[in-house]
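Hi V.,

You were right to ask for the full record rather than a summary. Here it is.
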Amino acid sequence: MAREKSSEVSISVTLDVEVIDALDEMARERGVSRSFIIKEIIYEYLGMKKDGEPQLELNVEGVSTADILLDKSDKYRWLRLTLIELYPEVSSVLEKKCPYCGRRFRARSYMARHIARGVGQCPKIYMARAREAIEVYREFISMVRRETIYRRGRQVEVYVIPNPSCPRNRKCREKIFGDLGEAIKYFVSKKKARETRRRQGTAREIKGYIIDRASE
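Predicted structure:
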């Protein structure tokens, strides 16, 4: 299923009919192709991008058995377990259960539609996102401090966020913002960047495993 191709990897994926229905539904809503949605999902899970270019070439073939996550054999077990570890909600999706409200569905396509409709269909999605936002804000409040400094002879209140990755001097070590909104935006972007780096570290391990198996 996987073979070495220069420095890249090609993966062939087969899909259940109900999975294709769910993907088509998502594609129609966004006005893109099914293969675009599939690639986006794979790239999002594996985090494999370099200079904005995908590092996986995805080839979708036929309608049968399952995709990587739904495959019941041991062929993709290592990847499936990694994805579930990175994204705990995946295990709920595999059980045809909404990861937010716990509601069960007869088919994954119904569940995909339920989640795609967002807050209007599942109010607990809003609560989950609100909890995430609260946690981020609490972390922000614990790190930021408000100071009064002089700028051009005037007293100005600023918000200071430590930047431990750059300990060389005060200017680099601390980021200063005159606006609270800008300070929050910077903090959230740095937090997302850290999370992306964590996922990419795992992705590099996965890619190495794929290449090792492809060259056997």
